[in-house]
Design the sequence.
């Protein structure tokens, strides 16, 4: 009986290793495109971890771009079953925090200006307040989606300037993918508005979306 239980545990362990890619395969088959995503619960845990890291690094607001970029690169490595040590995440943070903070500062200033316009439009002091408010909300949406796309395009070798400049080309080449980016931003806003403690999970899901959207076309 004890031997039977031991054999069953060994079989279950072999199945888990086969599915996760951490051990030998049980049968010959083509390699998975995303071996790190085979273990769904482990992927969910990694998404939550990335969300927490993004909140931790991006707590100063101006550091949010590099927090997102480092999180995206970390999760992409994890899904590809590459080296995904947390040390590499912090290496990306150090490599891009200077330029990322400049991008974050500019984005924060624009967001504050748009928020003031929305507040003034709602106050009734400005003629055409409804139009101004709509423009303000649209501007915030464009800013947020653009920031998410730029974070996904950032690479330590090319820097933030190239990442920001690539945003229009990315949008033009994949208009359908733009809808997914908008949905990711909307998810973060809605979940955080409903329950603020869900912010790390929402940000982790947004990071996963940035990793997945370009890959879907392949």
Sequence:
């Amino acid at each position: 009986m004890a031997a039977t239980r031991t054999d069953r545990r060994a079989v279950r362990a072999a199945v888990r290793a086969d599915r996760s890619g951490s051990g030998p395969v049980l049968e010959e088959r083509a390699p998975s495109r995303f071996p790190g995503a085979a273990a769904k619960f482990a992927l969910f845990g990694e998404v939550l971890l990335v969300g927490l890291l993004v909140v931790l690094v991006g707590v100063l607001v101006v550091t949010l771009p590099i927090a997102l970029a480092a999180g995206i690169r970390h999760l992409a490595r994890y899904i590809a079953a590459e080296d995904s040590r947390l040390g590499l995440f912090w290496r990306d943070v150090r490599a891009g925090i200077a330029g990322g903070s400049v991008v974050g500062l500019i984005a924060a200033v624009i967001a504050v200006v748009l928020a003031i316009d929305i507040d003034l439009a709602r106050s009734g002091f400005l003629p055409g307040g409804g139009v101004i408010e709509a423009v303000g909300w649209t501007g915030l949406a464009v800013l947020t989606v653009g920031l998410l796309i730029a974070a996904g395009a950032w690479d330590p070798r090319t820097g933030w300037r190239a990442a920001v400049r690539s945003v229009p080309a990315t949008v033009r080449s994949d208009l359908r993918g733009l809808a997914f980016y908008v949905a990711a931003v909307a998810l973060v806003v809605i979940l955080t508005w409903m329950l603020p403690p869900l912010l790390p999970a929402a940000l982790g899901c947004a990071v996963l979306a940035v990793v997945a959207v370009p890959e879907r076309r392949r």
